[in-house]
Specification:
The protein contains 13 helices and 10 strands. A hairpin with a 2-residue loop joins β9 and β10. The longest helix is centred in the middle third of the chain and has 27 residues. The chain folds into 2 domains: 159 residues, Alpha-Beta Complex (Amidase signature (AS) enzymes), CATH 3.90.1300.10; 147 residues, Amidase signature (AS) enzymes. By secondary structure, it is of the alpha/beta class.
Length: 390
């Protein structure tokens, strides 16, 4: 396996052949190192996690679906520690190379999977997306990335982060392959109805800034021609930063519920940014969580009303191109907060989102996203295919 991108794990390396029949026969697959594979250990981006957990007793259903469809696993890919980051810079295992933005981070936490796809090392890869860990690296690396409707794909056999936000996501360089993989993972062979209306998230574009907005103008025009004239809407009356804070509280509380006992017992070595985040999750009060849960349902209801059954929302995936490697931590955290303000929309509302590699800024890729109605995953995949040349 080509290691020049630093995408693949050495300590948890796995190769596995798939079925000899199925729609994915002959295609190579990389698996983020949070998915369990029977008989192998899962590292979750942290040596102490690897040391304190036995080999998996069963393979994650999402991985098994892909093997049964004929794909073959060529390796496991690096992740941020316990998937709790959007950067892809792992203090223990290094930073995978971003093949399409030299000297810049690949994004995380599905960093290795995104780098492997962008660099042509595999046909497609799977990751997990809780706060944006497929969508953001897809944007940074200039590839397609998909976050499904929450609950559409089984989460069994995966190291959790925040259970009410966690999803299985996937990457591809080609929209048709993205759709083909989606049909397998979603177990959905139905034809999607065409979208009825296109909405532009004006507050999301404002947050991303004029340069990003200008970079996407040709793509937005193309979407309008394909779907119909776009209507601008303000997604969040409270402000997207307020929605981001709701997300952080709910996610953080679930993270501590999942991992707090292990952290207290093992006292694992984390990178400074990851360590700081876990420390904060331990301080979240139940009263904060109760308020945030109620407000989350209001967000979900608002988004459901916006989208109905066949409307899609267009917004920038990220507030800009990938930051440079070794950017100071305080700058990265500020950029992360902006990114989460965009990424939290689909997460809070449990909606599907696809990153489309349709923008370039300063010779680096940046992605445009579509968020669809709950359960309309195939609709988004159909749009992605329709936007790309035959």
């Amino acid at each position: 396996m080509n290691e020049t991108l630093g995408a693949f794990c050495r300590s948890t390396h796995v190769t596995l052949s798939g079925s000899e029949t199925g729609p994915l026969v002959g295609l190579s697959l990389a698996v983020k190192d949070v998915f369990h594979i029977k008989g192998h250990r899962t590292g979750a981006g942290n040596p102490d996690w690897l040391r304190t957990h036995p080999a998996a007793a069963a393979t994650a259903p999402a991985v098994q679906r892909l093997l049964d469809a004929g794909a073959h696993i060529v390796g496991k890919t690096h992740t941020d520690e316990l998937a709790y980051s959007l950067n892809g810079e792992n203090v223990h295992y290094g930073t995978p190379v971003n093949p399409n933005a030299a000297g810049r981070i690949p994004g995380g936490s599905s960093s290795g999977s995104a780098a492997a796809v962008a660099g042509g090392l595999v046909d497609f890869a799977i990751g997990t997306d809780c706060g944006g860990s497929v969508r953001l690296p897809a944007s940074y690396c200039g590839i397609f990335g998909f976050r499904p409707t929450h609950g559409r794909i089984p989460l069994d056999g995966i190291v959790p982060l925040a259970s009410s936000f966690d999803t299985v996501g996937w990457f591809a360089r080609d929209a048709r392959l993205l759709e083909k993989v989606g049909r397998v993972l979603l177990d959905d062979q139905r034809d999607a109805r065409p979208p009825r209306q296109l909405l532009l998230a004006s507050d999301a574009f404002t947050l991303a800034g004029d340069a990003v907005t200008a970079a996407f103008q040709p793509a937005v025009t193309k979407l309008s021609q394909a779907i119909g004239p776009a209507q601008s809407v303000a997604v969040s009356p409270e402000g997207l930063s307020e929605w981001m804070q709701l997300f952080r509280v709910l996610q953080g509380a679930e993270i501590w519920a999942n991992h707090g006992a292990w952290i207290r017992e093992v006292q694992p070595a984390f990178g400074p940014d990851i360590h700081k985040r876990f420390e904060w999750t331990a301080t979240i009060q139940q009263a904060e969580v109760d308020i945030a849960k109620e407000k989350r349902e209001q967000v979900a209801a608002r988004m459901d009303a916006f989208l109905g059954e066949d409307t899609v929302l267009c917004l920038p995936t990220a507030p800009g191109i990938a930051p440079l490697c070794n950017t100071p931590l305080d700058e990265l955290e500020a950029f992360r907060a902006q990114a989460l303000s965009l990424l939290c929309i689909a997460g809070l509302a449990r909606l599907p989102q696809v990153n489309l590699p349709l923008g370039t800024l300063d010779d680096c890729p940046t992605g445009l996203s579509l968020v669809g109605p709950r359960g309309a995953d195939m609709l988004l995949l159909k749009i992605a295919v329709g936007l790309t040349p035959q």
